[in-house]
UniProtKB/TrEMBL annotation:
The keyword Ubl conjugation does not apply. Residues 107-293 form the D-isomer specific 2-hydroxyacid dehydrogenase NAD-binding domain. CDD domains: PGDH_2 (cd05303). Keywords: NAD, Oxidoreductase. It holds the Pfam family 2-Hacid_dh_C. This is D-2-hydroxyacid dehydrogenase. Gene3D superfamilies: NAD(P)-binding Rossmann-like Domain. Belongs to the D-isomer specific 2-hydroxyacid dehydrogenase family. Residues 6-319 form the D-isomer specific 2-hydroxyacid dehydrogenase catalytic domain. It comes from Flavobacterium cheonhonense.
Length: 320
C-alpha cells in the first residue's frame, strides 16, 4: 500500500510506515497534478501539512483514496466532512506540535519586548557607525514577568502557552467559546509539577485587561481582531498570531502600530500566504516568521510517528 507524503514527513515517520509494510513516496506533486498522481500510482493514503489542499475535486477524482492525514492541528485545507461522507478517513495530529507553537509564541514575545527584530536588521548596517544611537533606541525594553498574557483559544496549544507563561511569572487570562474550565499541569525537569485551574472569560474582558494577546483559534469567517477589538485593548499592547492567517485585520493592525496603540506584533501567519503584504513585511514593529509554528525537528518526529500509528491502527481495524 502506497502513502504519498506530499508536504514531506519526518524520517521517523517514514521508518514507522515502512515497518508497517507501506511504501512511502515523498515526491512533491503540484497541486493541480495531485489527483492524477494518486490514481496513476495507486496511492491509498495522502498525507499533507498546510501547503496541499484536499478539496472535493481530489476526493471525487480518487476513489482509491482511503485515508487523508494532516500533519498538525488545523484541517481547514481539507474538506473533512465531505471526505468522511465518501468513506474516506481523515486524521490529524492535534497534540504533536503544541509545544513547538508555544515556544514560537514566546520567541515573538521576547523579540517584541526587546526590539530584537529591528535591532537584528539595523546592527549589521549601523552597529559599527552608530552603536550608541542604537543602544539608546533599544534601551526601553520591558519584562514579561508580572505582565498579563491574554490567550484567545484555550485548546491544547493555548494551554501549552499558558504553561510557559506561568513559568515566566506571568498572569494568564483566557477566552474560548468551547472551553469553560481547564486544569493545566506544569511539569518541571526534576519530576515535580503543579496544577493550575483556569476559568475562561468573555473575550472582551481579555482584550481589556491583557498586556499581551496571543491567538490560538481555527480559521473562520471574519476577523477575531479588527478595529473594534483593537480599540478595546490597552495602549501599548503586544499581539502575536501563530494560529491562522485571516483572523487579524492586517490593515487595522498596521494602523494601530503606526498610532502606537499596539507596541509590536509577532506574525507567523498572514492573510495573504504565501505572498504577505509588503506593508507587513517591511514594518519595523512586526516580528516575522514564515509559518513555521510546528516546524521543529521534535514536532515533525512526533507528527510523523503519530500519523503512522493512526494509519496502521485504522487499516488493521478495517481488516478485523
Amino acid at each position: 500500500m502506497k502513502v504519498l507524503a506530499n508536504d514531506g514527513i519526518s524520517k521517523s515517520g517514514i521508518k514507522a510506515l515502512e515497518r508497517g509494510g507501506f511504501e512511502v513516496i515523498t515526491t512533491k506533486v503540484a497541486q493541480e497534478q495531485v489527483a492524477n498522481y494518486i490514481n496513476a500510482n495507486d496511492v491509498s493514503v495522502l498525507l499533507v501539512r498546510s501547503a496541499t489542499k484536499v478539496r472535493k475535486d481530489i476526493i471525487d477524482a480518487c476513489p482509491g483514496l482511503k485515508i487523508i492525514g494532516r500533519g498538525g492541528v488545523g484541517m481547514d485545507n481539507i474538506d473533512v466532512a465531505y471526505a468522511r461522507s465518501k468513506g474516506v478517513h481523515v486524521i490529524n495530529t492535534p497534540a504533536s506540535s503544541s509545544e513547538s507553537v508555544a515556544e514560537l509564541v514566546f520567541a515573538h514575545l521576547f523579540t517584541g519586548v526587546r526590539f530584537l527584530h529591528d535591532s537584528n536588521r539595523n546592527m549589521p548596517l549601523e552597529g559599527d557607525s552608530n552603536f550608541d544611537g542604537l543602544k539608546k533606541a533599544y534601551a526601553n525594553g520591558i519584562e514579561l514577568r508580572g505582565k498579563t498574557l491574554g490567550i484567545i483559544g484555550f485548546g491544547r496549544i493555548g494551554q501549552a502557552v499558558a504553561k510557559m507563561a506561568l513559568g515566566l511569572g506571568m498572569k494568564v487570562i483566557a477566552a474560548d467559546k468551547f472551553v469553560d474550565k481547564a486544569e493545566v499541569r506544569v511539569d518541571f525537569y526534576n519530576g515535580q509539577f503543579i496544577n493550575v485551574e483556569f476559568e475562561t472569560e468573555p473575550i472582551e474582558e481579555v482584550f481589556k485587561h491583557a498586556d499581551f494577546i496571543t491567538l490560538h483559534v481555527p480559521a473562520q469567517e471574519g476577523y477575531v481582531i479588527g478595529k473594534e477589538e483593537l480599540a478595546m485593548m490597552k495602549d501599548g499592547v503586544g499581539i502575536v498570531n501563530c494560529a491562522r492567517g485571516g483572523v487579524i485585520d492586517e490593515v487595522a493592525l498596521v494602523e494601530a502600530l503606526d498610532s502606537e496603540k499596539v507596541l509590536f506584533a509577532g506574525l507567523d501567519v498572514f492573510e495573504k500566504e504565501p505572498t504577505p503584504e509588503i506593508q507587513i513585511l517591511m514594518h519595523p514593529k512586526i516580528s516575522l516568521t514564515p509559518h513555521i509554528g510546528a516546524a521543529t525537528l521534535e514536532a515533525q518526529d512526533r507528527i510523523g510517528t503519530e500519523l503512522a500509528e493512526q494509519i496502521m491502527s485504522l487499516l488493521q481495524s478495517e481488516k478485523a
